[in-house]
């Protein structure tokens, strides 16, 4: 008995999805000054949201990222308010537009990655998408001794213009201290920053993520761990740090 075969619908569907998302991205270019828009930004946003939801799912992090970009509130990418992200030196309207574009590019990248994976199932449960964390992290690792005072930690953050420091016991990294932790511990609890040591207030363990993971995974982990800073690892060794500011620079087109 003859057995009929049918074309692979998933592949055809992904090809069509990529085509539709690329078209949406192309139609966004005029809003960045590359031509004259054929519709209002509000109409475009509604269509973009609908398309992302249809192609990537209602719970997609990229859908959330696009919605936050519309608001012009880049800090909303991680939906937390404990620390203020560093400014990017760009007016909020332009920054919001660039963020939209970056999110749409990431949508295309995710769909293309799914197509490349074909029928094979991802070993980690989902396809790697977009640019890697290591490409946008800060490779300079700043740290402070666990025995240093909170005042010393604060002075180092101010000197290096950072919102966090890895904490070391002189052999390995054992925690992290952030400016928000300093504010809560010193101000709210009335601790003496000159005599209180970092070890008593640091956050443990160090929240870390592999540098080969896509940036959207850093956003997910920051949400899950309620933090704005992650250590970046490679083969079990810390090679850098990625913060909300790094992610915002990527989504704003500042690299």
Structural summary, described in words:
The chain is an alpha/beta fold and 255 residues long. It has 2 domains: 115 residues, no CATH class; 118 residues, CBS-domain. The chain is built from 8 helices and 6 strands; from the N terminus they run H-H-H-H-E-H-E-E-H-E-H-E-E-H. It has a 3-stranded mixed sheet. The chain has a 3-stranded mixed sheet with strand order 4-5-6.
Task: Give the count of helical stretches.
Answer: 8
Q: Uncertain regions: pLDDT < 50 for 5+ in a row?
A: 1-8, 78-89, 121-128
Largest sheet: 3 strands, mixed
- The overall number of domains is 2
CATH topology of the largest domain, by name, is CBS-domain
Class by alpha and beta content: alpha/beta
Overall shape: elongated
CATH architecture of the largest domain: Roll
Mean pLDDT: 81
CATH level 1 class label of the largest domain: Alpha Beta
Percent helix, as a range, is: 40-55%
Computed over alpha carbons, the radius of gyration is 22 Å
Order of helices and strands: HHHHEHEEHEHEEH
- Ends apart, CA distance between termini: 60 Å
Strand content: 5-15%
């Amino acid at each position: 008995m003859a057995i009929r075969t049918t074309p692979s619908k998933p592949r055809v569907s992904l090809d069509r999805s990529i085509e539709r998302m690329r078209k949406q991205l192309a139609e966004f270019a005029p809003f960045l000054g590359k031509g004259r828009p054929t519709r209002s930004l509000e109409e475009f946003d509604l269509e973009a949201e609908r398309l992302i939801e249809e192609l990537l799912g209602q719970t997609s992090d990229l859908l959330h990222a696009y919605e936050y970009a519309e608001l012009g509130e880049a800090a909303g990418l991680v939906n937390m308010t404990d620390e203020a992200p560093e400014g990017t030196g760009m007016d909020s309207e332009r920054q919001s537009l660039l963020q939209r574009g970056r999110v749409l590019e990431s949508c295309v990248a995710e769909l293309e990655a799914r197509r490349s994976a074909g029928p094979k199932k991802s070993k980690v449960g989902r396809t790697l998408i977009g640019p890697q964390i290591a490409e946008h992290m800060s490779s300079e690792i700043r740290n402070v001794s666990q025995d240093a005072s909170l005042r010393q930690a604060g002075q180092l953050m101010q000197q290096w213009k950072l919102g966090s420091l890895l904490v070391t016991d002189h052999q390995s990294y054992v925690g992290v201290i952030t400016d928000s932790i300093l504010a809560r511990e010193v101000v709210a609890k009335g601790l003496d920053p000159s005599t209180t040591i970092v070890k008593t207030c640091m956050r443990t363990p160090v929240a870390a993520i592999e540098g080969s993971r896509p940036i959207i995974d850093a956003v997910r982990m920051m949400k899950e761990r309620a933090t704005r800073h992650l250590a970046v690892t490679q083969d079990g060794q810390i090679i850098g740090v990625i913060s909300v500011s790094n992610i915002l620079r990527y989504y704003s087109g500042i690299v």
